[in-house]
Amino acid sequence: MLAQFTPTWMIEATYNINPKELKQLGIKVVLTDLDNTLIAWNNPYGTEELRDWMTSLERENIQLVVVSNNSHRRVKKAVAALQLPFISRALKPFSGGIRRAMRQYQVSENEVVMVGDQLLTDIAAANFSKIRSILVRPIIESDAWNTRINRFFERFVMHAMLRKHPELKFRKDLINERNK
């Protein structure tokens, strides 16, 4: 049961994910959750660090796509300033939103990675889609009310997963400190 929630990698922060390393791993498209992964849930404008990371992805010809469970209206408003493509109402942990993005960008399972801050939605959706995943720490510690429920259950899953896989730790990069 824990396998469906186990990420490929655990990285301290989204912006620590090195696009050159992604390129070495054959990644052409990065799918990312929106709230507390790409931007703080209460700050739709992002940060300078986010813009720098987006520029470095662009330099490596890696497409960044937001895959969110939020409504079309909410995601469109949140990513407008960033001018990012998105899939809304992705229904994570189901694989439909990820599969839709893969078809749209014509990539195979080994050319895409899902980045998210939640085991029960983002990482489970990646595993159901048979793609690699990166669990990141949330950008801020507070969450929207609907995410707090997930976080409660996620603590138990995380504890059990780390007991079973003690080699999984939050790291600074993908390749040099690769999880086994």
TrEMBL record:
InterPro entries: HAD-like_sf, HAD-SF_hydro_IA, HAD-SF_hydro_IIIA, HAD_sf, PGPP1/Gep4
Stated name of the protein: YqeG family HAD IIIA-type phosphatase
Organism: Secundilactobacillus angelensis
Pfam family, one: Hydrolase
CDD domains, sorted: HAD_BsYqeG-like (cd16416)
Membrane-spanning segments: none
